[in-house]
Sequence to fold (328 residues):
Amino acid sequence: MHTRSLGHSDLKVSAIGLGCMGMSEFYTNAGEEESIKTIQHALDRGVTFLDTADMYGPFRNEELVGRAIRGRRHQVVLATKFGNVRSEEGAFLGVNGRPEYVRSCCDASLLRLGVDHIDLYYQHRVDRTVPIEETVGAMADLVRAGKVRYLGMSEASPATLRRGHAVHPISALQTEYSLWTRDPEDEVLPAVRELGITFVAYSPLGRGFLTARFKTSADIPEGDYRRNSPRFQGENFVKNLDLAREVERMAAERRVKPSQLALAWVLARGEDIVPIPGTSRRDHLDENLAALEIQLQEYELARLDQIAPKGVAAGLRYPEATLVHVNG
Fold:
């Protein structure tokens, strides 16, 4: 397994991690039994970087990950998050970065995961009502208490990231990044590189759109989050099919799958970038890991730049009500 360093930490993680969110919510999944087998298969294949959050499920995903890694904790760099507040019934209740909330969330996550420490603890979304210095200060207290090893932020703006990093070193910033979401290239990627922070790319397959799985909107299962995603709706869906078809065409010429080509592109963007594609199926996991063996040539990268320039995707990446919480 290829590895990449995690910021200024002494941790090395697999060059491709595993996003576990969809195993419990938002996307159609293969069920808990197959999901647990997929996590364990990932460990067998050398994947060491697992990503979850307290809000996924809600709360059930951390429990699932905890069951999957029982007896194998030493093989895992375990990342989880706090900050998106949800009720037991699943209602979204806003964003909270108050110090007392940080501490209580960490303790609850440790219990659900069944571990004595978290390797990488992210603030999932920035609470604009609480100074970032207070939130990161509380997170730093968790490091000093031995409950957390390293700190991360998710969907934070460069200015917020710099302020947080001045309080305590931030090892990773997690943000959406793929052929159809290249926004981080403008300001976020330069900022993390200036600070020596690893960039963790979530949704590197465009929430599945870049796999060529979706040909019509009817291909999106009932109850799937993507039915409410602007890029999967109406005219946006039709326009985005053009991008998916171009990626599929180039992948066929290369004799690889579109998902593998899309992941290889993310991997080629820098050794400081770690994509975490999500799947609940072992066969899809194996397909994703095969991207590690694809070496894209300069002319291929240039062609992908033409196929997928910045801003190519039609539609917002989140509904407007959710988008207000990104780049905080």
About this structure: The two ends are 34 Å apart (CA to CA).
